[in-house]
Design goal:
Number of helices: 11
CATH superfamily: Glutaredoxin
Structural class: alpha+beta
Oligomer: single chain
Largest sheet: 5 strands, mixed
Number of strands: 5
Helix content: 40-55%
Shape: globular
């Protein structure tokens, strides 16, 4: 029996991959894809370079800062400072006495606590609320430092809402969470309580230090401050 010769089946033409087509890359489709890729790269790099909250704390992170305290709780000397962000003498104390205090902290000799209070009007109330909002994110100390630098930069106009939020960005805070905290006045009652407690403890001016319970007023010279600490060391 003769075999029936079947016609060869034609294969459909192979479709070229659209991404291999030069016309795609030269046209609007390719340009759009390139733009999307570039935006993704930029976004990824932005995320990688965003400040790490723990790292921003720097020296305070190394010292094991917790909230507004730093140093071992069983240290022989306990220092509590009452400070107002609008107070120029507090700025002086911040610049001249903080480093010596931290030296003692590093040696395990001092436990230091900072009590921010608002004696000098509404701008300080706002700044102190902002500091507590930063504390909520574990970043009290970097923000505390930024507030004093702002006082030095801008004087009485340092603590507007806009600037307080700029400082949050400067130190690497979650801005949305910070702004919500500040705008809702979440810590207003706490600021009022801290200020009232300071008055009840006999604080009438800032800065005021209590060194093992002994009251020391003003940004005293470093040498005098060291003497007052070292006489208490074992």
């Amino acid at each position: 029996m003769a075999k029936v010769k079947r016609p060869k089946t034609q294969q459909p033409p192979k479709q070229q991959d659209i991404f291999q087509n030069p016309a795609f890359w030269l046209g609007s489709g390719g340009m759009l894809l390139v733009l999307i890729i570039l935006l993704a790269i930029v976004a990824n790099r932005s995320g990688a370079s965003a400040p790490d909250v723990a790292a921003v704390s720097g020296r305070f992170a190394e010292l094991g800062a917790v909230g507004r305290t730093v140093g071992p709780e069983d240290a022989p000397v306990k220092i509590v400072e009452f400070s107002d962000y609008s107070c120029p003498h507090c700025l002086t104390a911040h610049k001249t006495l903080l480093d010596p205090i931290l030296e003692y902290v590093e040696q395990g000799q001092v436990y230091f606590e900072l009590q921010p209070i608002a004696f000098l009007g509404e701008p300080t109330v706002q700044a102190t609320q902002a500091a507590l909002c930063a504390q909520e994110q574990g970043m009290f100390w970097p923000y505390h430092d930024r507030l004093f630098r702002a006082q030095e930069q801008y004087g009485r106009s340092a603590f507007t809402d806009v600037r307080l939020k700029e400082y949050a960005t400067d130190v690497g805070l979650d801005l949305d969470a910070f702004a919500k905290c500040l705008d809702t006045k979440k810590y207003l009652a706490e600021v009022q309580r801290l200020t009232r407690d300071a008055t009840n403890q006999g604080v009438v001016a800032t800065p005021t230090f209590f060194i093992n319970g002994q009251k020391v007023e003003g940004a005293i010279p470093v040498e005098e401050f060291r003497q007052r600490v070292e006489v208490l060391l074992p």
